[in-house]
Every structure is written in structure tokens, then in C-alpha cells.
Design brief:
Elements (H helix, E strand, L loop, with lengths): L1 E5 L5 H4 L4 E3 L3 E5 L7 E5 L5 E7 L5 E7 L8 H17 L1 H4 L3 E6 L8 E6 L2 E6 L2 H5 L1 H12 L3 E6 L12 E6 L5 E6 L2 E6 L13 H10 L4 E5 L5 H8 L4 E6 L2 H12 L9 E5 L2 H10 L4 E6 L11 H18 E11 L6 H15 L3 E8 L17 E7 L1
Parallel strand pairs: 1-4, 9-10, 14-15, 14-17, 15-16, 17-18
Antiparallel strand pairs: 1-3, 2-6, 4-5, 5-6, 7-8, 8-9, 10-11, 12-13, 18-20, 19-20
Helix pairs in contact: 2-5, 6-7, 9-10, 10-11
The chain binds S-adenosyl-L-homocysteine.
Length: 395
């Protein structure tokens, strides 16, 4: 097998079981290494430490498949890892009954670069690294077998693929093609647009927070910013909201949100308003108009794609949080999120605190929020914790 040798001391992160090796840690490689090829990783002293997938185009030059040198990286390896990930999901009682479920969460499931979400009987797969790309066939076969699903759609179109030197790949790998799948979550039906939607089609990571939205919405005037296909909005209606104003800048997302509403004739849809607007501008307009809400949800897109964007991103987060504080009635609630991995839990809380101070509002943390349990975070891979949120009560 081909080899990769680290610079002195650079084995430290591997000894902590972190799966990434940066280009700057590598002293030399032996042999001509192709994208995705499995290599033995050696310390500067020559000690073999792991098997990893080589990625010549990426700053993350290699991602570890296994630290067990007796475990060959072959078809059987992927079958075991996929089966283990699925078993973990079904060991958690609240997950086994979900129609929309993340089956594989990349590094935290021991499969760097592999994301697989199940919507009813369809698996949507994203391969995001050179190593995952190389083992496509094994991963697809294992997922079909272990999930028992009738269809598998590969939607490897994440922007991060470019960092790995990979082109987008989109194809049906199993079963008869379809374009949307209806799932039910906490009593609400949602049509998932697996072809044109974001990520694999839906934000499964917010599942537990959607339930919380229903619990906090009774008799409240709700404002849902960045509503996408209406997941939070419909839960607010289910929870008995007095009114729900949902804002998004994407007309197709709003059309999909309204169509999702129609799938649920039992909901009081007449209380919902859908507005196509830029949230930054709409919040300002609402403040100027003297509007007031009892519950505001802020779930923006990733403002900080990397650490280089951090300070600008924090200003943008602060801007919308500040405006939300201004719009909240006394005793109102703010549910605010960041899905930027580059924004730490601490930095996020500091930003929210600064926004509250600037708005002259006093607020208390009622809950700390994160991704649902089918998005586990391996302790050795803190980068896996990208979604963070706070539920605040505003005095
Ligand atoms: N809260 C959603 C997911 C949000 S995804 C859920 O739970 O499903 C982010 C959404 O923000 C996308 O729908 C995108 O269209 C929208 N968006 C991005 N920038 C925006 C802006 N400046 N104003 C309004 N919407 C925006």
C-alpha cells in the first residue's frame, strides 16, 4: 500500500482520534497517489497510525477511514460501517419511528465525507470527499442492503466538493426515479423536493426544534424568518399560533411551503402569511411599522462558510438578532440559530448578548439547542457540531 509520512509532532491529532490531516502536516508521500486512494499514515518516526483516503486537491489532504491497522479498507469495511450507523439510529427510541431520518452523518459515523438521509423509502446520498467518491459503489450497495429502501438517489452537489476537486454528480442509483417524497413529522405532512431542494431536500437537523416550536406557539403571534419550505411555520400552526408570518427570499421555497400547508387541511392555514422578502430588509420594515410578535424564529443560512468570514458573519447575525429583539413583545420568545461551524457556541451566545444589550432588552436562556440525535457528534470530531441555537425569553 502507498504511504504518507507526517512531519514531526503532527501525529498528535491522530492520536486524539481526529480524522483529518491537513496538507501542512505532511512531510512526504511515497508513490504516485491518486484521488481517493487508501494510504498508510506514518508518523515522522515511521510508526503506522491509520489508513486514510488521500485527497490531492484539498487542504484536508487525507481523511482517516480507520485507526485499526488490522481492518482493511474494502467493500466489507463499508458494509460494516453503514450497518453500524443504521443500528445506532434505531437504538434511539425517538428516531426509529421517523420517516425523515439521517442515516449517516459523515465523520461522526466513521465515514468521512458521506451523508445519507432517508425520506420514507428513499435514501438521498451525498458524497463530499475524494475518498467517499472512490468507494461510491460499496457505499451505495451497503446502503441499499442495510436500509431496505426501494430507491437511492445520489445528490452529490454540495459546494464543498469543489474543494476536493470533484464535479457535481447526480444520478438515480437504485429504484424508480421520483421527484418528491411525502413524509410526516410530528403530525405534519411535508413534501420533500429531493431534486431541487437544499442539501438532501430538507433540514432534518431541526426536527427536535420543530417540535419545540409547536410547544411554544399557542396563542402567540409568530414570525418565522428564513422559513424555507415551512417546517417551523406549519409546526407553529399545529401548536395553535394566533398568526404566523413566514419570510424567505426564495419564491420556489415559499411556493413549496404553501403547498406543504395544503397537504395538511387540518391546520388553520388562514392564520398563515407567506412573504417573499430579504429578511434583513423585512425586519427593518416591520420595526418601522411598529409591528410586534410574541415568538420569533431566526434560522438563517450559513453566514460564515469558513473562519475567514467570521467577523462579517457575526455582524450579520447580530443585525437580525438585534432587530428581532426590537420586534418582540414583553414576555416574548426568540429562537435563534447559527449553522456556521466557524461560529462557536460561545461566540454565538456573546453575539446574541450584544444584540440584546444594544436593543435595550433583557433576555434569559430557556433552552440551549442543537441538531437532532440522528446528527451525532463524535467527541473526537468537535467540527461535527455545526448547528447551535438558543431559546430566549425576553423581558
Ligand atoms: N429554517 C428552515 C431552513 C432555513 S434554510 C427550515 O427549518 O427548514 C435558509 C433559507 O434562507 C433558505 O430558504 C433561503 O432561501 C433563505 N434565505 C437566504 N438568505 C436570505 C435573506 N437574506 N432573506 C430571506 N431569506 C433568505
Amino acid at each position: 500500500m502507498k504511504e504518507l509520512t507526517l512531519k514531526p509532532g503532527k501525529e498528535r491529532s491522530l492520536l486524539l482520534r481526529h480524522p483529518w490531516l491537513y496538507d501542512t502536516s505532511i512531510a512526504e508521500t511515497k508513490g504516485r497517489l491518486r484521488a481517493g486512494e487508501t494510504v498508510v499514515v506514518r508518523s515522522a518516526r515511521g510508526e503506522a497510525l491509520a489508513y486514510a483516503a488521500y485527497s490531492p486537491a484539498s487542504k484536508i489532504r487525507a481523511r482517516v477511514w480507520t485507526f485499526d491497522l488490522h481492518e482493511p479498507v474494502d467493500h466489507a469495511f463499508f458494509k460494516r460501517r453503514v450497518a453500524a450507523a443504521l443500528q445506532r439510529r434505531f437504538r434511539l427510541p425517538e428516531l426509529s419511528s421517523q420517516q425523515g431520518l439521517r442515516l449517516i452523518h459523515g465523520e461522526s459515523d466513521g465515514l468521512p465525507g458521506v451523508i445519507a438521509d432517508r425520506y420514507d423509502d428513499t435514501v438521498v446520498l451525498q458524497l463530499n470527499s475524494a475518498g467517499a467518491e472512490k468507494w461510491r459503489e460499496a457505499i451505495v450497495a451497503a446502503l441499499i442492503k442495510e436500509s431496505g429502501c426501494r430507491r437511492l438517489y445520489e445528490k452529490s452537489d454540495a459546494e464543498t466538493r469543489a474543494l476536493e476537486g470533484l464535479e457535481p454528480v447526480i444520478a438515480w442509483r437504485h429504484g424508480v426515479a421520483c421527484d418528491e417524497i411525502v413524509i410526516e413529522e410530528h403530525g405534519v405532512k411535508l413534501a420533500i423536493d429531493i431534486i431541487g431542494g437544499h442539501k438532501t431536500g430538507f433540514y432534518l437537523d431541526q426536527r427536535e426544534n420543530r417540535r419545540l416550536v409547536a410547544e411554544f406557539s399557542a396563542d402567540r403571534r409568530v414570525l418565522n424568518c428564513f422559513c424555507y419550505t415551512g417546517g417551523f411555520s406549519l409546526q407553529a400552526l399545529r401548536g395553535g399560533a394566533r398568526s404566523v408570518l413566514s419570510v424567505d427570499s426564495s419564491q420556489p421555497a415559499l411556493a413549496r411551503a404553501q403547498a406543504n400547508g395544503e397537504l395538511n387541511p387540518g391546520l388553520p392555514l388562514e392564520r398563515a402569511q407567506w412573504r417573499c422578502a430579504n429578511v434583513f430588509e423585512e425586519l427593518r420594515r416591520l420595526v418601522q411599522a411598529g409591528a410586534s410578535f410574541d415568538f420569533i424564529i431566526l434560522d438563517p443560512p450559513k453566514f460564515a462558510p469558513s473562519a475567514a468570514h467570521l467577523s462579517r458573519a457575526l455582524r450579520a447575525y447580530r443585525d437580525i438578532n438585534l432587530l428581532a429583539f426590537r420586534l418582540l413583545a414583553q414576555g416574548g420568545f426568540l429562537m435563534t440559530f447559527s449553522c456556521s461551524g466557524a461560529v462557536s457556541v460561545e461566540a454565538f451566545q456573546r453575539m446574541v448578548a450584544a444584540a440584546a444589550l444594544e436593543s435595550g432588552r433583557e433576555a434569559r436562556i430557556v433552552r440551549r439547542l442543537g441538531a437532532a440525535a440522528d446528527h451525532p457528534v463524535a467527541l473526537s470530531f468537535p467540527e461535527g457540531e455545526y448547528l447551535k441555537g438558543l431559546l430566549l425569553e425576553v423581558a
